[in-house]
Structures are given as C-alpha cells and as structure tokens.
C-alpha cells in the first residue's frame, strides 16, 4: 500500500512508524515543510493510559521516551499567597523536540521516507497517486481546507489570549498561579518537561490582555519570531514566580485558542489525524496525547480491516466518542479559565478544589482516591465555614431564606399527568411521600396550575378549587408528619404550551378533542402543530396575576414550606422573558426590562400574600438554546432582577422555550449557568442557587456543592429510578442519616452467606466510572 502522510509532527511520524511495523510492505512517505530540528513549543504531557498503549504498540519508542520523562504527582495551586497541593495525579512530560527526534530516528531505522523542508503535493494530486493520505498537518491543515466540503470543519475561538514560553526553572509539580495584576486577573499553567527546564503558558481574558499588552504587543511576526516586547513585560509581572531564572522563547507570540471540530474525518481515501481533525484546550494537556492515540487507532484499523474504506470508517467510529468526551472536558476547562475572575472571591481551599474539578473529569470522590489527606482538609474547611460537623458536602445543612434544610438534595419538579380535574390523588400521595421518605432535604411538586386554562394537559394538577386545596393539604401533612423533609410547590401557567396530550400519548401534541384556548404574550404558536395563542390584553394580565395570588394563598393554607414561581421552559411567565416568544410593542415587550415587567408583577403580588417566613423562589431558563434568544448574560440579568425583588433562590434550568431549540446535552450540562448565577448574583444578594439537569451521581453533587457552583442540586429522573436515592447515597458514603423507623432494617443489605471477605456494601449502580441512578435519559422527556 502506498501511504502519504502530510505533516511530520508526533501524529504523522508515530502513525508512519506503527503502520510500517504492522505492514512492512507499505510504501510510506512523510511530507514535512520544516527542518528536522525545527519545533515550536517546549513540552508535551502524557497520561499513564496513553503511555501504556505506546508501550504495547512499540516498546522501542516507549523505552526511548521513558528515558526522557519528567514525572510528578502533585498539582500546586498558588492563589492569594497560599499554596494548595493535591497529590496522586501522576503526570509524565518530555521535551517536544526530543519526542520528535525519537520518532524521526525510529522512522530512519524502519526505512520510512521522511522528506523535510518539503511541501506536500496538492492534496487532490496526492489522493490520486496514493492508496491512503493521512492528513496530520495540524490545526491549520491545508488538506482539511482542500476537502472542506467533505470534512465540514468549524473553529470556535473564545475570549482569552495566551503565550507559550519556557524557563530554566525546574518546577517540582504542575503549577497553577493566579496573578492579580493592575490590569486584571492572569493565570500561569506550568510544568517541568525535563531535568533542565519547564514550560508555562500565560493566559488572560481578552479585556485584560488589551489593557496589559495591547499597546506593546508585536504584530506581523514571521515564523520562528517571538514577541520580545511582551516577554519583557511578562518578566516583570512574573518575577516572583521565576526568581531570577531565565524566560525562554520559541516562536512565542500571542494567540487565541481555536477548538477545531469536523463533522467527518474521512474523504474518500483521505483521513484527518490529530489537530487537523480536532483540538482540545491546552489546560487539560491532551493535544499530543490525542494525536498519538489517533495514530495508534488508525494503524490498528488499517491492519485489522480488509479495505481502506472499512479501516477509515472503523477508525472514526472508535475514536470519535473518545475525542468528543475529551473536547467536552476541555471546553469546560477552557470556559472555567475564561471566567476565572468570577471565582476570585473564593477562599483558597474552595478555589483550589474548584480549579482541580473544573473539567468534571476530576471529582470529589476521585480526589479522595488520589489524596485522602487533601480531600479531608477540604471537608474540614467546608464544615468550619458553615459552623457544622464534617460531612459529605451534600449532607451539610443549608438555608433558603429562613427555611433550613437538613441536606442539599431537592427532588426536582416532575410532571406526572395523573390528576383528575386538577385534583391530585392517591398516586401523588405515594409519589411525593416516597420521595420525602427517601431522604431528600426538600421535595417539589410538579407545576401546579393557577387555572383550568393554565394546565398543560387534562392530567395536570391545579390549585384553584377548594377540593384541590384539600387534596394538597393531605399530601403536605403526610410529608411533615412522617419525614424530616420540606415540601415546596411549583406554581405556573402553561401559556401557549397548554391544551396538549398526556406526555405518553404525544408530547406537546394538541388534544384530538376538547381543546381549550391558549394564551401568550404574542400570537406565536409553540410549533406548527400547536394552537396559535391569543395575545393577552393588559386587563387579562391582571386577571392572571390575581389567579397566581389566589393560588399562592391556597398554597399557604395547605401548609407548603416554599413556593417556586415557574418562569422557565416556555410556559407563560417564561414566554414573557424571551425575545423569541415576546414580540409585544407595549410596555410588556421589547426591552429586557419590559419583558421582565409582568413576571416581576406576578412575583411581587405573590410575595405580598405569601407568608413572610416562607421563601419564594423562581425557576428560570438560563438559555433558550437558539440564536436570538436569551443566553447566559440575559440569565444573569433576569436572576438579578428577581433577587432584587426578594427571591430566596434561583432554580437554574435551560431551554424548552422554542421547539426549534438546539440544546447541548451532556452530564451536568446546565450547571455552568447555575455556576455563573451563583457567583455573580447569589453571593451578592444572599440568594441560594439550585443546579439541575442530568445530575445523577452523589459524586457530582458533592463536587458541585464543594466547588461553590451551586448551593443545592435538584435531581428528577434519578429519583424516579430510585426514590430512596439520598438514603442510598448516604449508605454508599458510609455517612449516618436517620432512616424511617419502618425501614431501619434496610440500612444494611441482607447477609449473603459469604465468609471469605467483608460484608457487601450497599452502593449505587455504576456507569462510565461514575455513580448513577437513573433510567436512560431522553431529551424529549424534559418538560
């Protein structure tokens, strides 16, 4: 087979070595435009898993690399004159230049034709003259550009600038420095890569860069040239870090990181490898790692599959899930550093934990395994900050306004569609009662509607008749009598999303008969299949406001501990907030302030009748997941407005505002919105923030709470899968909590008759390395 490799970096060279090893008859040519001793940057980092694969594939390469490694276990976070050290992380790094030399030597030994200082032929010509073309030509890939219609690439550039430098100071750990400068917050990421040097990246938000370096930064630098004027200022800013040691440049100039994604990695007999196909932010150190893992996979697939097309398909099928996962983690890390300034109020202990868990790959439990002493010190700090005893973060008490909860777990509102004429029945008593008995600090009802016309479906509950009030009072009294949990109600009006079938009969589908008229801020249907709503008049707005007030008064008489106003998911109050659904031209539409007017009027009216010693909270959709709609900035403004009006908590959900939404689902995918609102609004107004959305493990809950990204976590489908999830989470963490006396015998699992080991411990189902307890989650189930 005739194979042409474009690009002589680690990905291209390593692939050539492996392909030749597995297929000695292959004729392999590597085209590299630079000289053999040209290299940009300094060090590269590998995980133990990647090194294991390299060792298995080519022991000679692994042995040569091993002689060069700098190894360390610790991560040091330097913040506010405090150094927090977390051990057990196990890194290996080496000089990028030495890695290339090793791979070049291996190519020579195997007779691979590596053509330095040679630009590859036109990609189309190369594809025509080769059986396989491997494009390993980096982030600015010419091959990818030539076949862009097939690869369909995109590059997302964000809001930070960085510069890559070296030093002759040998760090003794992976180092993060947070620099509070006159220009703003900057951060240094650094690690040793050999016996005589370290590499580091200085990064900062674009606004900070403009103030600090914008006036002096060099422009128009050629290949190999460095920005010496900027480097001189960096010597001054980082003088305390390097303490007289040299700063070294190597093609060091300011850049913005671009995340490369391609819808396809294959075009006929051309395949993308490494940075040509995908990039991951340097803060998780995965660029070279991913590239060499790509090379391993592609060489193996070529060897195992009977044809090139089948090999390329197998390669992409194998590698894409791994790359997608890494890019999600890298994106979370990128955004964390991009928003670093919002965390600089945190104490050093919390800040260090927040930084270490920023990508969500390292978690609370994971840190316990790596460094138990460090994890214990965090637990002690958190307990001391609350004046409480040491406990897993999720089991620390918390207050929402004047309401104290025994733990930070909330059973999220979940529509059950099982009421008759708006009256909750035996099902609701068992459903909500079982969740309260299961150990959560608070149980929330599904959305309770303020009128018959405000229901989503005929099966939705209400609080607009005496019969409904009596039924709810019975449920509240059961929860108060039999459990330590609190119970809150979510109060709302369906708006344009009303008069639809029960979820299992067709989500958001109109009723086949018996439809009632729906209303909204503007006459815009939720989807082409739904009714066009009536645009509400100002007089009608007053009537609906009064319905909310009457329902709140009934809820107070029923004894609910908390009331949440539903201003999310495209229901009536939510649809006033979004410019996609509110196109009014009067004082209730147009500007963000006008769009907030009616929801705030309802909030104030409800607050006036809701008991002063019981909290009033709000659920919002922090993004519409659609261009032109609300996003994070608007969500902060909306949360702030409600906080200023006295909201005791903001429950941060997302989406479901327009049917055309394009959400980015994933583990804990909504928590970045809660994180920002908690750190920009919650701490300023004393408003608690509740995170929700695909949170299913107690490890994730502990991580979110301890990092200060939320005050509480609401879990929905997790509690459908396991109503006693909180009790089981306590048992799995060996933390004592009070079980219902009737269930006390279940605190320990039955004896199995084993005598050859310890008694089995009750634990949760595990999936993908994380505890989980939920049925398969489908986006269309979220309502």
Keywords:
25 helices, alpha/beta, 32 strands, 783 residues, globular, 37% helix, disordered C terminus, eight-stranded parallel β-barrel, seven-stranded mixed β-sheet
Describe the structure.
- Residues 394-729 form the NADH:flavin oxidoreductase/NADH oxidase N-terminal domain.
- Residues 742-783 are annotated as: Disordered.
- This is Bifunctional salicylyl-CoA 5-hydroxylase/oxidoreductase.
- Pfam families: FAD_binding_3 (PF01494), Oxidored_FMN (PF00724).
- The protein is of the alpha/beta class.
- The model is unreliable at 752-783 (pLDDT under 50).
- Helix 1 (10-22) runs parallel beside helix 4, helix 17 (466-482) crosses helix 18 (538-558) and helix 18 runs parallel beside helix 20 (592-609).
- The longest helix has 31 residues, at 308-338.
- It is globular, with a radius of gyration of 29 Å.
For the secondary structure, the number of strands is: 32
As a percent range, the share of strand residues is: 15-25%
Shape: globular
Discrete helix count: 25
The major beta sheet can be summarized as:
8 strands, parallel, barrel
Which spans of ≥5 residues are poorly predicted at pLDDT below 50? Answer: 752-783
Q: Give the neighbour order of strands across the main sheet.
A: 21-22-23-26-27-28-29-30
